[in-house]
Amino acid sequence: MRTFIKTLPARLGCQSLGVAPAPVEHLRVIGGLAECPGCGLYQHVPELQPGQLAACPRCGQHLLKRRRTAPVAAPLAFCISSAAFYLAALASSLMTLNVYGRERTVDLLTGPMELLHEGWGEAGLLVGAVTIMAPAVAIGLMFAILYAGTRPTLPNWAPGILIWYEKLRPWSMVEVYILGIFVAYTKLTDMAHVDVGPAVYLIGGLMLTMAVTDSTLDTERIWRHRKVDALTRLDDGDVVEIEYVHVDDVGMPPVERLVACPSCGLVGEMEHPVSNLHCVGACPRCGHSVWRRAPESLTRTTAYLIAAVTFYIPANLYPVMTFMRMGGGGGHTIIEGALELWSDGMIPLSLLVFFASITVPMLKIISLATMVVMTWRGSRRGLVRRTRLFRVVDMVGRWSMIDVFMISILVAVVRFNAMATVTANAGMVAFAAVVVLTLFAAWSFDPRIMWDAAGMNGELVDGLSPAVLKRHDSDTPQGPSRPAHTSAAAPRPAANMEPNQA
Ligand SMILES: [Zn+2]
Ligand SMILES: [Zn+2]
């Protein structure tokens, strides 16, 4: 993918294009229009009121949300709390185990380090990356975004930071780690005396403050700070001039000429129909590479799924860990781990482990494979259900990491030589590979291609549909929105449509 255009408008400025060839094309940036990332339907979205959200009338996907809270102050307060919780959690102990008078105290770093020492470096790095590095990077990037949000116009570096934040955020798995700690704690209480350290409560606090930071951040309002560049360069090298129009003034252009930025949602109209196979160029607002559909979506998803199925077999056949106690014990697989919890009377926890470790990976593989096959066949059956299922699959995938986290904690804390020792086994690495590969499979799948393949994204026969407006605290529909020119309560967004004049 050619990315040189990314840096062009933002960093060199428009003056540097003075020696470049004269513009050969026009690109129209169209305000008041949004493409649904779930089904690819273009729709009219008016200016939202605080507390309102716009949803797709065809598949129900949320398109835009306007928060009631202060756009920078509220997330900043929670972000500072997150940083405090994070630093305190790093410095305090996670758990102390007492076996026949011998004590062992561990912290957040011990689990990944023990996995590294035992020769399971991949798993140790993965656990360290998603529980220690990713939260730190996410908090740091959030501070940078919020600082940028306080500037009168968004600095040139800010869009890249926001794009990276959105890419990295799913890798911060603090909330899943909390459950991993809980399962490990339950497994330990029947064999020894366990003291929970302050880090557990601090991680609980970190989980809440990071979630609240995300839910109070109004990315759309931050994008509005960023003015659109006056010129941009397409992927074929042509320089294009950008014109700013509102959908109410120009009407709905032909759908095959429209393309939406996958990062900031800005909709542009090209002079020619846009191919799904090539990158169009850089977004004139955020600099993200713009593709009409995620590149090679079907092929990539299929490849990740095949790899995930390959690892799924050893992940379930081989033991994930070995529990040795007073010379007895032995290795057990994921299913045996869940059954053991059941036989110990911890039925809800056993069901949770069974659901997260066995049902979720299988559900992900089967549902994504079904979506791939039905897309190949151009099937129209259950499109809305499939799109909703995709959202669920995309959301629940990270929870399968519970078992990997639990093992990393047990390996760290249960080290009493002949008395009691837990070691990790090959099954755990295979299982971690399944989780990561199914995450990649879901992220590379673009649900809009299901609708394309079924022929649902052609010419808009019924004209431009308005997005459904709801309140996001109650999710009660407020009826379809009306186009801005018929609604007094819907002023036209203008700030983000102005050219970025030097
Ligand atoms: Zn939709
Ligand atoms: Zn963009």
From TrEMBL:
Encoding gene (name): pqiA
Residue ranges crossing the lipid bilayer per the database entry: 72-100, 120-147, 168-186, 198-217, 302-321, 351-376, 396-416, 422-443
Keywords: Cell inner membrane, Cell membrane, Membrane, Transmembrane, Transmembrane helix
Biased composition (Low complexity): 481-495
Subcellular location: Cell inner membrane
UniProt name for this protein: Paraquat-inducible protein A
Keyword Cell inner membrane part of the UniProt annotation: yes
PANTHER family associated with the record: INTERMEMBRANE TRANSPORT PROTEIN PQIA, INTERMEMBRANE TRANSPORT PROTEIN PQIB-RELATED
Gene Ontology, cellular component aspect: plasma membrane
Species name: Novacetimonas maltaceti
InterPro entries reported in the protein's UniProt record: PqiA-like (IPR007498), PqiA-PqiB_transport (IPR051800)
Residue numbers spanned by region Disordered: 469-502
